[in-house]
Amino acid sequence: MKPRATVATDPDRIPDGAGAPAGGSGIGDVGGEGSGRPPTVKRRPAQNAKRPGGITWRQRLRRDRTLVLMTLPAIALLLLFNYIPLLGNIVAFQDYDVYDLGITGSPFIGFDNFTRIFEDYRFWEVLINTLVIFVTQLVLFFPIPIAIALLLNTIMSARVRAWVQAVVYLPHFFSWVLVVTVFQQMFGGAGLVAQWLREHGHEGFDLMTNPGFFKFLVSAQAVWKDAGWGVIVFLAALAAVNTDLYEAAAVDGAGRWRRMWHVTLPALRPVIALLLVLRVGSALNLDFEQILLQRDQVGAGASEILDTYIWWTGIKTGDFGYAAAAGIFKGLFSVAMVLGANKVAHMLGEQGVYSKK
To answer: Quick one: which of 144, 147, 154 has its CA closest to 256?
Structure first.
């Protein structure tokens, strides 16, 4: 008896219940019954398989050309006002003469301007004073938006919550001139509080000219002006918390404080860590206008920060090389602070500004 031959058949053309030879195992059966080899099935490769590389960049550009055109003005402004001016930092390495020689004609002096900065004892005093004001604002200002957001989150009435949020957020749109004026009218020597105390037989006070109280004064102004902005960020984070967690905690017998401690605050930890890292990165970038408006009232010893010192000793006197060197130092210091704070966030298990690889 001759062995049975197998015919390669296109599986797409085999009707249901046909095409499998008797004694075989289906399509493309090579061994057949008693051959001792397992049956093999030959499959045709898919006709519409996706290419490994996906679409090309030309296809993506053609697909997203409308979005690209919309972003071009923003990119142009970013290049014009943020990146092209970085080329001017070359004056930090020159004996820069803005009136006669300019950038192209001013002689290079290497790191002499940086040496002047490091040898200037007044610069280090201003740097320490800037960090002291920053730490005061970090301790007094940073927790307040979190507390207000937690308080608003417990208010059941949506109308009351929206009204309180609008009142708290409104001072964010005020200029620092208006904010300082309001505080002057309230806590100055001729302010409402001092007048009320004098009318009731007490001695008045003037917090606006008290050098020892200055760091607390600017912190209070920052809280009144910008706390509402932080509240919006934390309320957005609270809105993403799964309500099932609160229900499960309530079923387990957790009260309001327990639910806040074990559900709400852990949900806010990533946002708190991110904002804290960004806040630390701007340690030397306090509000220039706020400090400059009140500098003469309390004196330079208590109110001088790095930005106002650079403005007075560098830009106002025409020493642009010194000012540029101080600005580069400030930028490098801020980058180091961001990297350090982000490393701490990674150690605490948070993502921070960028994730740990």
So the answer is: 154
Both tokens of residue 291? 């400090």
Tell me if 186 sits within 8 A of 232, measured CB to CB: no
Give the pair of three-digit tokens for residue 94.
């020159």
Return the structure tokens found at 26: 């289906």
Helix residue spans in 142-213 (DSSP H): 143-153, 158-169, 176-187, 192-199
29 or 207, higher pLDDT = 207
Write the CB contacts of 231 (distance below 8 Å, at least 6 apart in sequence): 145, 148, 149, 152, 165, 168, 169
Considering all CA atoms of the chain, what is the largest pairwise distance in Å, rounded to the nearest integer? 129
Q: pTM value?
A: 0.73
Evaluate whether 30 touches 6 at the Cβ level (below 8 Å).
yes
The Cα 314–Cα 330 span in angstroms is 14
Say how far apart CA 92 and CA 82 lie, in whole Å.
Answer: 18
Residue at 4: amino acid letter:
R
Residues in Cβ contact with 341 at an 8 Å cutoff, skipping those fewer than 6 apart: 276, 277, 280, 281, 352
Query: How many angstroms separate the first and last alpha carbons of the chain?
Result: 69
Contact 323, 315 (CB under 8 A): yes
Measured CA to CA, the distance from residue 72 to residue 18 in angstroms comes to 62
The half-sphere exposure of 221 on its side-chain side, counting CA atoms within 13 A, is 29
| Distance between CA atoms of residues 172 and 203, nearest Å | 33
Average of per-residue pLDDT across 298-320: 87
332: tokens are: 């490098």
Per-residue pLDDT of 172-198, as tens digits, reads: 999 999 999 999 999 888 888 888 888
- Give dist(CA 84, CA 62) in Å, integer: 29
Please state, in angstroms and rounded to a whole number, the distance separating the CA atoms of residues 269 and 237.
10
